[in-house]
Amino acid sequence: MINNLYIHNGALNTHKIYNTWEKYAIENNCGAISIFTGIVRGENNITHLSFDIYMPLLKSWFDLWQQKANKQQVVLYMAHSQGDVEVGKSSYMCALISKNRKSVLDLYNGFIEDFKANAPIWKYDIINGKRVYAISRSKEIKGARLV
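Above: the chain sequence. Below: its structure as tokens.
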């Protein structure tokens, strides 16, 4: 764990992660916890997704969001897989926790959308045992270029 950022090899243990985050909310008398969980879908002959992560950039990106959340008295957690995750398993979870729902809901969608657009995590489809870059479902990271 790096400042509420969890990176796991393979699929996430969503129950364990949720229980950890819920325990934090209860112990800190928080009344709001919003969880988003991403599950690998089986379409276009995909059997798995595979993820590569560039940790220095991910940590910087996440630290900026933590600062933004802290200003609104929200605690931010995120878990993501690296490596292969099979269809039907989770590769992404985030939690926004606070004393009240308004501040959580104010940040919730913006954080998830910015994650999809700017987090330095590269996604590959596993089709027939081959790893294929998922370019059609990827967004260019600001300041970076796909080669």
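Residues 5 and 19 are 16 Å apart (CA to CA).
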